[in-house]
Automatic annotation (TrEMBL):
UniProt biased composition (Polar residues): 62-72
Protein name (database record): folate gamma-glutamyl hydrolase
Keywords, sorted A to Z: Hydrolase, Signal
Pfam families on file: GATase
Keyword Signal: yes
Chain coiled-coil ranges: none
Organism: Vitrella brassicaformis (strain CCMP3155)
EC nos: 3.4.19.9
Record-annotated active site: 190 (nucleophile), 342 (proton donor), 342
Molecular-function GO terms, alphabetical: gamma-glutamyl-peptidase activity
Low complexity composition bias: residue spans: 33-57
Annotated Glutamine amidotransferase domain residues: 116-346
SUPFAM superfamilies linked: Class I glutamine amidotransferase-like
Length: 445
């Protein structure tokens, strides 16, 4: 189908990339830190050689027929849930700025807008999933949406806590559904990665007892691209110039997928404008942003059979003290993914107090993973019971506030506010499903 286009396309992008990165640098004073980074300056003055290494030949026609096997399932209108978080400290921050803090009452939960934009930029819509909802509500949403994202944040994860119950529910539910032939991707970023590790290992102490010196750290990823599980991974395979010829017999990531969900071939049409150099950029440039104190080091990972059996480690990373930790994971059997880093921030968070990479290469990393996630969601066939019910749940109903601040340190530009469930007791959940809620004024205290 898109074969000829790809062959032409991959020879062109570095011209465009040079062009777009210089425009970005001109337009954005906030990308100054990247501009002055010697590594990146070197890269861009020399990008024709480095960018061409990974240019791939046209894939074989057989590869495409494998992709075609998926047609007939999934959705063309993906919707991804994002789990809300308690609004810890938001009220105080607003007060400090002399702003009306009542919007951040204890009954308000939040979603950082960067996660919403990340999902939207891949071509999916967002539905907030309240961390404190009932299992009935989660089950209803599970059957209505096409995937879920567990966002990052600063929280203490404890088994059985209201916040973790939501994560446990969706991970288990997605696995059960997959075993019954259904597809429901689960994505965890940073704290969300940690939550997935907690649920799968069943041992919350692995993460809780860890400590890393890795706050506000732009760095890279380490991986061995010749390693078969990485070549056959769903997340990185589309970026491979010469992926392993046949992953279908691999007992790991792809082989375990049944024919309907087989993703053993790269999709040339989908990735061609982004893919040729993304793996190189991830390995060699500081486009990967870390901001965590907990995680899981290689020793702990390798001595935890439940994790070793469940996941392939697609990348590791090194904190500021030189300690290596697991940074990108993909379940061998299930569409469950975790990144200990923050792809959404490159394009969507701009705090001047943080060293978030904003180069053109860094933004391509955001864009690739956003497309990847939305594409995973397109394989799910879940739908809301009616269009009215679908529209009633979308993020577009929910108010957001600017949390960026010219004078005080901050992390997020903007937060969506989602009224917690405990305070909507008066309204029946049936009414909500039929579209009477949520509405703006019901959401803020
Ligand atoms: C370009 O890259 C090559 C190989 O990495 C290096 O030897 C050379 O010095 C670079 N040229 C410039 C202008 O940076
Ligand atoms: C909801 O209310 C119950 C009972 O009042 C309380 O125990 C629980 O902690 C609340 N949940 C959240 C998330 O605030
Ligand atoms: C790895 O993590 C465990 C548990 O947190 C810790 O006891 C151990 O010292 C860590 N090892 C390294 C090399 O940091
Ligand atoms: C599609 O999947 C079915 C089984 O799920 C398999 O028998 C068939 O060979 C596959 N077709 C292609 C073109 O791979
Ligand atoms: C990438 O990270 C690894 C450690 O994980 C480090 O050894 C390597 O030097 C880094 N590469 C670059 C180009 O920063
Ligand atoms: C964390 O890393 C920074 C930067 O390398 C270093 O200055 C600092 O001493 C480290 N802190 C600890 C507690 O190791």
């Amino acid at each position: 189908m898109a074969l000829p286009a790809r062959c032409i396309y991959v020879k062109q992008p570095w011209w465009r990339l040079l062009l777009s990165s210089s425009i970005l640098l001109l337009l954005s004073p906030l990308s100054r830190s990247d501009e002055s980074s010697p590594a990146l300056r070197h890269r861009s003055s020399n990008s024709s050689s480095s960018m061409n290494d990974d240019i791939s030949p046209c894939p074989s026609p057989e590869a495409n027929s494998v992709m075609d096997n998926r047609s007939g399932t999934g959705t063309g209108r993906p919707i991804i849930g994002i789990v809300t978080q308690p609004s810890n400290g938001l009220r105080d921050r607003l007060r400090r700025r002399g702003e009306d803090a009542t919007v951040a009452g204890e009954d308000v939960s939040t979603i950082a807008a960067s996660y919403v934009r990340f999902v939207e930029s891949g071509g999916a819509r967002v539905v907030p999933v309240r961390y404190d909802a009932s299992e009935d509500e989660w089950e209803y949403l599970f059957n209505s949406i096409n995937g879920i994202l567990f966002p990052g944040g600063a929280m203490f994860l404890e088994g059985g806590s209201p916040y973790m119950r939501a994560h446990e529910f969706f991970v288990r539910r997605a696995m059960k559904a997959f075993d019954q032939g259904d597809y429901f991707p689960v994505w965890g970023t940073c704290l969300g990665f940690e939550a997935i590790v907690d649920v799968i290992s069943g041992d919350y102490s692995l993460i809780r007892q860890s400590h890393f010196n890795d706050s506000n750290h732009p760095s890279n990823l380490s991986f061995d691209r010749t390693h078969k599980p990485i070549q056959c991974s769903r997340m990185f395979r589309p970026l491979m110039a010469h992926p392993h010829a046949d992953c279908r017999h691999e007992s790991g990531p792809v082989g375990a997928m049944n024919g309907r969900h087989d993703v053993s071939a790269p999709d040339p049409g989908l990735w061609s404008f982004l893919s040729p150099t993304i793996l190189q950029v991830l390995e060699n440039a500081k486009v990967v942003y870390y901001n965590h104190e907990r995680g899981i080091n290689l020793t702990t990972w390798e001595s935890t059979p439940s994790l070793m059996e469940f996941f392939d480690v697609l990348s590791t990373s090194r904190d500021k003290n030189g300690v290596d930790f697991v940074s990108t994971i993909e379940s061998r059997r299930y569409p469950i993914y975790g990144v200990q880093w923050h792809p959404e921030k490159n394009a969507f968070e701009w705090s001047p107090w943080l060293d978030i990479p904003h180069s053109s290469d860094a933004v391509r990393v955001t864009q690739y993973l956003a497309l990847f996630l939305a594409n995973e969601a397109r394989k799910s066939s879940h739908t809301f019971p009616s269009r009215k019910a679908e529209f009633a749940s979308l993020i577009y109903h929910f108010p957001s506030i600017m949390t960026a601040d010219a004078e005080h340190k901050y992390t997020f530009e903007q937060l969506y506010l989602v009224r917690a469930r405990n305070h909507t007791k008066g309204s029946s959940s049936t009414a909500e499903r039929e579209g009477h809620l949520p509405n703006g004024d019901a959401l803020i205290a």
